[in-house]
Q: What sequence folds into this?
């Protein structure tokens, strides 16, 4: 049976590709809680699990955009609650720098986000994803950072 | 009255007041606080319950709408932030709107006031009767 | 070349209801490296695991992808299955197509497409996975219990009985907690002190238990099996090793106006004091805020009368550092501050008391010697009104109290009413309630006794207002919803069932332990149903009301449960480490020390190493070395490394990027 994808609600029928990086301890558990509570958020969001938000190399974000992602979001534990004590502090600083650089390059601010989600915040996770997908959908397809050499026909 | 009419009135009451009667846990603290309890046929907790169950017809004709002082003590004390006084006010507004405007002339007010009338009662009266 | 097997789970209809599992298996079967792809109803079941096991053996699989529920549920289950079947357990990846797909998306084609994408990412990752072997760390066979109430005491006794040394750290000068303040306990009406004090004495005398009273935890370092904790021992100004607890000093102390917190400030104590007669340790403590000698240099009577020469005005706070394998949090609860409840005249009238204050008034060792008297004029109350749910069950936006039900109040109010009616049959008792919650064993029968045997009047409704009258009584105005009346009761005393909340020391402690808390400051458990005594942080366990409101039977049950988890940990000689640790490629490392600076555990050191240089020379370079026993695998160093020498096993750069590529295809 061929696998087709349903369009999200836009007039152009554009469905964004969203990569979400979630830290294993808080935000991934929060994402699981959203699922446990059957809260809905768009399936455009696909989550990659990393041990801590500080594992996220800015190059992974650029790689995602290069390969055709339209938005990238990183979720971690609230500052002060990092399972590894200080990881999310590094994340915060790195992402500030990265997003500032991307902004300078002309990449819209709405395409990237950092959100702190705890393991008890399933509702916040779902809401954040819904908001983020809406923002990225409005911004449209990522043309500036995509690498045409990487485009495949699936 | 028809069921559908009552349903529409209930929607109007809920949207005008912004109250969610389902938050009520039936503790009775609102009625326990109400200074006007003995003068009311239907009490704050009954207003909340009856609006939720749709039993609105008796509320539209009761004198309790006017014996409620709008002192808002029930709002202050309710542990669940249900705001019964807003519901009473909304029912009152629905009734008044049907009845027509200018029910109380400003010139007639001084004759109705005596030395004991608290300021808030005067303000609430205007709010109640000038719809 | 990898030979990967893909196993898609239906999870009954949990996944199969919204994801076309057969289509997913078919699509993934076409991926590079996948030689076998199938689906099954319950992968985690014995037969599901058998399926995986047989496939591994028959198809010579080198890697496994399971598309199922969250890895947080069954990653261990499947890893063990892989290991039993002959492949390294880290050659297995899980695609979360339940919590993060089938349960959040109702549209089948969309959910199926997402499942395929997530499956492709897992296949891409496992293609690059390398086999990993777990290292081992030793376990310090000693436990720390923070909090000396009934929860901490029970946990400590159980751990000590199993043969392990335990330290109890308690901020007050004595252990015992809130239970020591209670009079009788429901539903048996046992005297609280009678059942608690033998346990306290056992703690004090047990060879495996060390009580560090009047102390606080100030710093926690390390991880499960290897915690290093700094404890501040506050200055008592009394030498614990010399003091015999005779009490001479407390009788002779001239400073008599210190509010007695043990009696809820209903009476006074002296500046040098023993909190109550059965205190453990039975050692005096000087309160530096009130002692005339410590503040103004005057007096000094206690040191003169002390036969044991135990008084030491020059004492200072001391700090000790100890190593522990496991930490148990048992910090307990406090009743809320009732000052926001002006409608009940709590601040206005001394005869409006909280439930814990009433407990002290009933207690034979309390401020009135066990006779129930009004705090204002010492007269006997003829009518008492009990108000339920003060500060509990309030909606979040009301901001006056807590959303949760405090669980113990319905029962203790019934107890208060029964005891009052039992001691004073001429006193009328009224209870204004919203619901009466009596879920435990013999609880409802207890409440019925209050109504049927003791004639306590239960009124369904709430008190709106309490007004102190000129004649010293209290006018209680409330609603009676069953009779549809507003009632006025002329009461001599009003008792408010105050909500209980977590102790204030809980939040800073949670930060120190990296244990999570919810918005009500209760510690969160690892799983609300299946793992109620462990915090998500390994090695930190929860006991008692710090995790949520509960009564004594539940507290003791949970305390013993926490102890059993601790014993399960301490009984191991070695803990298997997480093998997903950082590793530095020494050929690429330039010795910059950036990674060393960011590691929260101090797992990275630098060594001088010899390398073969050009023209047969030897070059000595400074390179990083990671201690796999200490590394917890966070990955902070991998990103910091400017040369890309540092990578994280199990989550390598290439593996993560392969996942990104697969998702974005």
A:
């Amino acid at each position: 049976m061929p696998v087709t994808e349903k369009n999200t609600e836009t007039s152009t029928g554009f469905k964004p590709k969203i990569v979400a990086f979630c830290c294993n301890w808080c935000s991934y558990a929060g994402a699981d809680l959203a699922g446990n509570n059957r809260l809905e958020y768009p399936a455009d969001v696909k989550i990659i699990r990393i041990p801590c938000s500080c594992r996220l190399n800015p190059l992974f974000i650029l790689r995602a955009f290069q390969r055709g992602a339209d938005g990238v979001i990183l979720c971690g534990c609230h500052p002060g609650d990092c399972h590894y004590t200080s990881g999310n502090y590094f994340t915060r600083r790195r992402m500030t720098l990265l997003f500032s650089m991307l902004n300078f390059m002309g990449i819209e601010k709405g395409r990237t986000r950092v959100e702190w989600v705890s393991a008890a915040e399933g509702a916040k996770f779902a809401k954040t994803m819904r908001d983020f997908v809406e923002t990225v959908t409005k911004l449209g397809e990522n043309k500036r950072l995509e690498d045409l050499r990487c485009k495949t026909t699936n | 009255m028809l069921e559908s009419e009552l349903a529409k009135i209930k929607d109007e009451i809920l949207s005008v007041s912004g109250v969610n009667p389902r938050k009520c846990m039936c503790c009775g603290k609102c009625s326990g606080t109400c200074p006007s309890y003995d003068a009311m046929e239907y009490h704050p907790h009954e207003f909340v319950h009856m609006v939720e169950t749709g039993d609105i017809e008796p509320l539209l004709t009761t004198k309790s709408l006017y014996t409620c002082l709008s002192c808002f003590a029930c709002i202050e004390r309710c542990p669940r932030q249900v705001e019964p006084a807003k519901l009473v006010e909304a029912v009152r507004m629905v009734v008044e709107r049907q009845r027509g405007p200018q029910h109380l002339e400003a010139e007639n007010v001084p004759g109705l006031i005596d030395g004991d009338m608290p300021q808030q009662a005067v303000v609430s009266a205007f709010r109640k009767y000038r719809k | 070349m990898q030979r990967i097997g893909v196993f898609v789970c239906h999870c009954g209809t949990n996944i199969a209801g919204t994801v076309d599992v057969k289509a997913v298996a078919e699509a993934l079967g076409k991926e590079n490296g996948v030689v076998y792809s199938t689906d099954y109803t319950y992968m985690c079941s014995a037969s599901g695991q058998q399926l995986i096991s047989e496939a591994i053996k028959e198809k010579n699989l080198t890697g496994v992808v399971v598309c199922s529920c969250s890895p947080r549920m069954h990653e261990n289950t499947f890893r063990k299955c892989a290991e039993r079947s002959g492949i390294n357990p880290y050659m297995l990846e899980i695609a979360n197509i339940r919590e993060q797909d089938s349960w959040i998306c109702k549209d089948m084609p969309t959910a199926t497409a997402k499942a395929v994408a997530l499956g492709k990412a897992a296949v891409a990752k496992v293609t690059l996975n390398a086999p990993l072997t777990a290292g081992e760390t030793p376990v310090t066979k000693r436990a720390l219990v923070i909090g000396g109430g009934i929860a901490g005491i029970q946990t400590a006794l159980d751990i000590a009985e199993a043969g392990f040394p335990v330290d109890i750290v308690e901020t007050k000068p004595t252990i015992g907690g809130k239970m020591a303040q209670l009079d009788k306990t429901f539903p048996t009406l046992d005297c609280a002190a009678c059942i608690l004090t033998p346990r306290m004495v056992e703690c004090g005398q047990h060879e495996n238990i060390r009580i560090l009273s009047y102390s606080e935890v100030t710093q926690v370092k390390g991880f499960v099996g290897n915690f290093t904790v700094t404890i501040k021992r506050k200055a008592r100004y009394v030498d614990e090793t010399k003091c015999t607890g005779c009490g001479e000093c407390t009788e002779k102390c001239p400073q008599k106006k210190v509010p007695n917190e043990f009696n809820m400030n209903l009476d006074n104590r002296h500046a040098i004091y023993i909190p109550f007669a059965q205190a453990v340790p039975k050692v005096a403590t000087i309160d530096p805020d009130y002692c005339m000698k410590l503040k103004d240099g005057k007096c000094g009577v206690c040191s003169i009368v002390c036969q044991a020469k135990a008084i030491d005005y020059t004492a200072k706070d001391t700090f000790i550092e100890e190593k522990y394998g496991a930490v148990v949090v048992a910090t307990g609860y406090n009743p809320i501050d009732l000052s926001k409840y002006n409608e009940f005249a709590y601040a206005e009238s001394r005869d409006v008391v909280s439930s814990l204050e009433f407990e002290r008034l009933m207690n034979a060792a309390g401020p009135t010697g066990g006779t129930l008297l009004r705090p204002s004029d010492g007269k006997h109350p003829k009518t008492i009104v009990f108000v339920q749910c003060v500060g509990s069950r309030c909606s979040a936006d009301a901001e006056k109290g807590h959303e949760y039900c405090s669980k113990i109040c319905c029962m203790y109010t019934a107890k208060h009413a029964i005891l009052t009616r039992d001691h004073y049959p001429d006193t009328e008792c009224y209870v204004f309630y919203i619901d009466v919650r009596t879920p435990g064993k013999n609880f409802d029968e207890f409440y019925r006794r209050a109504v049927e045997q003791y004639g306590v009047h239960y009124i369904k409704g709430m008190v709106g207002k309490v007004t102190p009258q000129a004649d010293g009584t209290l006018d209680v105005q409330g609603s009676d919803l069953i009779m549809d009346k507003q009632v006025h009761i002329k009461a001599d005393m009003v008792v408010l069932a105050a909500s209980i909340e977590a102790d204030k020391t809980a939040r800073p402690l949670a930060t120190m332990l990296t244990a999570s808390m919810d918005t009500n400051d209760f510690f969160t458990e690892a799983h609300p149903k299946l793992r109620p005594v462990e915090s998500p942080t390994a090695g930190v366990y929860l006991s008692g009301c710090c995790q949520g409101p509960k009564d004594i039977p539940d507290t003791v049950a949970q305390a013993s449960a926490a102890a059993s988890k601790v014993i399960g940990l301490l009984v191991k000689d070695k803990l298997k480490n997480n093998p997903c640790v950082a590793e530095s490629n020494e050929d690429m490392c330039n010795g910059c020390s950036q990674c060393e600076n960011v590691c929260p555990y101090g797992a990275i050191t630098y060594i001088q190493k010899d390398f073969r240089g050009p023209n047969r020379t030897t070059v000595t370079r400074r390179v990083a070395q990671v201690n796999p026993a200490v590394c917890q695998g966070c990955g902070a160093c991998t990103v910091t490394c400017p040369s890309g020498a540092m990578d994280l096993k199990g989550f390598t750069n290439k593996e993560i990027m392969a996942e990104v590529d697969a998702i974005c295809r």
